Amino acid sequence: AMTTISDLPEDVLVELLSLLPVRDLLRTCRLVCTQWRYVVDLTTLWKRKCQRDGFYRQSLDRSISDWKIFYMLCHLKRNLIKNPRAEENFQHWTLDDNEGDEWKIEDLPGAHGNDMPDPTVHKYFVTSYGPCFKSQLITLKKEGYWNQLMDEKRPEITVKDWYAARFDCGCRYELTVRLLSKDYIVLEEFHPEPVVIEQWSDARWREISHTFQNYPAGVRYIWFQHGGQDTQYWAGWYGIRVTNSSITIGPQT
């Protein structure tokens, strides 16, 4: 007698279906029949996909309540800030304040500066003697993070930024990150005290990092803004330098 794919043992079906992309599994396979829907929803299938794509670790076994969501969050994870390293000029950035001699892009290490710990970063944005601030607004739905996921699972939102002064001039650095509702109401904010760096500092690159957890439901946008200026009002580009900014969303750790 002819056997159909439905006659296959469950473990073989799991193995076969786990080879397919998420989109096909959820939009096509899950709708084929009751049995397929049952298999697509199995924990073992999503755990298998995690193993295949390198997201699985034995130590996670007990702590993960939903392997399907865990897989999808790992699969989606990437830097949501576009052009974070000044490789595409000022593309994707909104220049909110552009005073003094305005924002500029320079090559690392720059005059009186240092290289980044990460050798793959080659450029940075630099501020002048008047306030220089730039921002990006991230629309979560556009990046693949649907409303229910944000509201029910509240995945961790991690923000990182790198900043440095030049050795011969003092400057200040500021960062503001806001989680916004669909009406752009601020649901949560990370806005540390401005960092003031004195003249003749070590001019090292420093990382600032913050993770939003258990934030309110309703987050639809993330607004990221950074910048500053020099503190000595020198013509040119003696203010804070910034590069390698990132926003990533991942499963609760």
TrEMBL record:
GO process terms (BP): ERAD pathway; glycoprotein catabolic process; SCF-dependent proteasomal ubiquitin-dependent protein catabolic process
Keyword Cytoplasm: no
GO molecular function, one term: ubiquitin protein ligase activity
Domain F-box: 2-49
Coiled coil stretches, renumbered: none
InterPro entries listed in its UniProt record: F-box-assoc_dom (IPR007397), F-box-like_dom_sf (IPR036047), F-box_dom (IPR001810), F-box_only (IPR039752), Galactose-bd-like_sf (IPR008979)
Domain of life of the source: Eukaryota
One Pfam family here: F-box-like
GO cellular component terms attached to this protein's record: cytoplasm; SCF ubiquitin ligase complex
Keywords on record: Ubl conjugation pathway
Domain FBA: 70-251
Protein name listed in UniProt: FBX6 protein
Encoding gene, per UniProt annotation: Fbxo6
